[in-house]
Every structure is written in C-alpha cells, then in structure tokens.
C-alpha cells in the first residue's frame, strides 16, 4: 500500500508527522529517504512533537543516534555517515526495543533494517513544496496507513 501527500511548507510537513505520531505504537520502525535538505529532520521534529517530546530535535553531524523520551521513547538515527561503512552500532537490539525508531538515510543501512517498516520518501518539488510518500511493508504498517487515511 502506498500513500502520497503533497505539503507546501515546513509547518505542513511537521503537522503531517504529528498526525502520524499519534498513531504510533512501541517498536514501530519508520525509514526516511530523500536527498539533502528534503525535510527528513523537519519530519522527525514533527514526530517528536507528536510523541510529546519537549526537547529540541536536530541532527548533529557526528551523532548517529539520539534517544528521546515522551509518551513513547524515540530513537532518532541519522546514518548519513555510514554510507561507505558497514559499522553495526547494535541495530538489531535498538530496532527490537520498545522505542519508536526513525532512520534518516535508511538506504545506507539497508542490511540492518527490519524487513517490516513504514518507508517514508520525501521529495523536493520546489522551495517549500514536498511530496511525502508512505509505503507500508508488513501488516502492522498497512494497518497504520489505514488508520492515518481512513
Ligand atoms: N515543505 C517542507 N518540508 C520540510 N522542509 C522544508 C519544506 N519547505 C522548506 N523546507 C526547508 O527545507 C529544509 C529541510 O531541512 P531538513 O534538515 O529537514 O532536511 P533533511 O532531509 O533532514 O536534510 P539532511 O539531508 O541534511 O539530513 C529546512 O531548511 C526547511 O525549512
Ligand atoms: Mg537531516
């Protein structure tokens, strides 16, 4: 199942992510793909807000994983630095935890990703417009998508 929406500002991207966050359950896995500046971190900020996380979310260059706590735990991965590496920081355990995981540049750790996940692809259409595509892989994520857009 694939679902695509178009948004026209960073605020709209965040608002959509907040709506998604409200449907999330412990252990959910979200992957984020899209070029430099597509809006992956902006989307993640919305997720964090939707999970009731008060801390500011950002993506420091040398940090692969930041962990936050709200209504649910959130693991925010940015694996950009792992493009040419097969370093395993303990992905299996991290993805198996009760935290919601969101992975920026997920294609760079393809071999460590759980097979079932919600794949989110953000594409830049213009300065402020983006298309956000959700692709559900697995039963849990089909259900999630259906809840999101009844
Ligand atoms: N509709 C939109 N959704 C998201 N970001 C937008 C939108 N319109 C403009 N922007 C701007 O695009 C930039 C997106 O930056 P962001 O850090 O979220 O991207 P990213 O995909 O995480 O980049 P990186 O590849 O560096 O990790 C921000 O400056 C944001 O304000
Ligand atoms: Mg980013």
From TrEMBL:
<keyword id="KW-0460">Magnesium</keyword>
<comment type="similarity">
    <text>Belongs to the TsaE family.</text>
</comment>
<dbReference type="InterPro" id="IPR003442">
    <property type="entry name" value="T6A_TsaE"/>
</dbReference>
<dbReference type="Pfam" id="PF02367">
    <property type="entry name" value="TsaE"/>
</dbReference>
<keyword id="KW-0067">ATP-binding</keyword>
<keyword id="KW-0819">tRNA processing</keyword>
<keyword id="KW-0963">Cytoplasm</keyword>
<protein>
    <recommendedName>
        <fullName>tRNA threonylcarbamoyladenosine biosynthesis protein TsaE</fullName>
    </recommendedName>
</protein>
<dbReference type="InterPro" id="IPR027417">
    <property type="entry name" value="P-loop_NTPase"/>
</dbReference>
<keyword id="KW-0547">Nucleotide-binding</keyword>
<keyword id="KW-0479">Metal-binding</keyword>
């Amino acid at each position: 199942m694939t679902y695509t929406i178009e948004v026209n500002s960073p605020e709209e991207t965040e608002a959509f992510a907040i709506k998604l966050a409200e449907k999330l359950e412990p252990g959910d896995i979200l992957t984020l793909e899209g070029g430099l500046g597509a809006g992956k971190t902006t989307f993640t900020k919305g997720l964090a807000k939707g999970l009731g996380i008060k801390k500011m979310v950002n993506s420091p260059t040398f940090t692969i994983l930041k962990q936050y706590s709200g209504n649910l735990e959130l693991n925010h991965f940015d694996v950009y630095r792992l493009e040419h590496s097969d370093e395993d920081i303990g992905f299996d355990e991290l993805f198996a935890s009760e935290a919601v995981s969101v992975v920026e540049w997920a294609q760079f750790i393809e071999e460590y990703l759980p097979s079932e996940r919600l794949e989110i692809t953000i594409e830049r259409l213009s300065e402020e417009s983006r298309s956000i595509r959700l692709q559900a892989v697995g039963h849990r994520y089909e259900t999630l998508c259906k809840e999101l857009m009844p």
